[in-house]
Amino acid sequence: MSALLQIENLSKFYPGTEGAVRAVDGVSLAVRSGDFVAVRGPSGCGKTTLLLAAGALLQPTHGRVLINGQDPYALAPGQRARFRATNIGFVFQQFHLVPYLDALDNILAPTLALGSDGRSGARAHALAEQFGLTDRLHHVPAALSTGERQRVALARALINCPKLLLADEPTGNLDEKNGQIVLHYFAEFAHKGGAVLLVTHEPHVDDHANRIMNMTRGMLC
């Protein structure tokens, strides 16, 4: 089975006062349909840099990223943005919800990159029901609990029906109960044929992910 996400010998270096900083150093990784892969490691080990490069948000210094067999960095910026919106759902620790939009419009925001086809509203309401947000759709983020905001962010990640979810410390701002709920949703997504790559410093992903990898000094081990 071909990988939904194929990372080949990926490196990202930054200039430093004492030479190049190797944020990610020669990482290779394949994430296939049904995979829930968790990469664990301390702050500063390169996890977020790896995730951003994997998500076509950060050009690597060396190596290659393939998503559904296509190199997103070979695309023009506008094409790459549309490619991301079609193929990838992102979930971040800080949620990145638009503060002046209500929950419904935050969920619908990624559809703007693709143009509405008239079905987005129905899917947004279905996702809201799935995540227990039906009675919170017309509340702005400041009026939502932390757990509700993360569930809005998860619904937003799923609105365009991606096959790949990328998550950066998605439980970092949640209590244990809400963290377990979010991890359950990731596991369910993978079980239904999607693929998940999650980076975290927390150990409680072990009960949900089907592959655990450790990262240190920019390298997987």
Describe the structure.
- This protein is of the alpha/beta class and 221 residues long.
- The protein has 6 helices and 9 strands.
- A 6-stranded mixed beta sheet has the order 5-6-7-3-8-9. The protein has a 3-stranded antiparallel beta sheet with strand order 2-1-4, covered by helices on one side.
- The relative contact order is 0.22.
- The model has no long low-confidence stretch (mean pLDDT 93).
Q: Termini, distance in Å?
A: 23 Å
How many distinct beta strands? Answer: 9
The coarse silhouette is globular
| Estimated helix fraction | 25-40%
> Class by helix and strand content?
alpha/beta
Uncertain ranges: none
Overall pLDDT score: 93
Q: SSE string, helix = H, strand = E?
A: EEEHEHEHHHEHEEE
Q: Describe the biggest sheet?
A: 6 strands, mixed
Order of strands, main sheet, comes to 5-6-7-3-8-9
Oligomer: single chain
Radius of gyration: 17 Å
Strand content is: 25-35%
Determine the number of helices (DSSP H or I, runs of at least 4 residues).
6
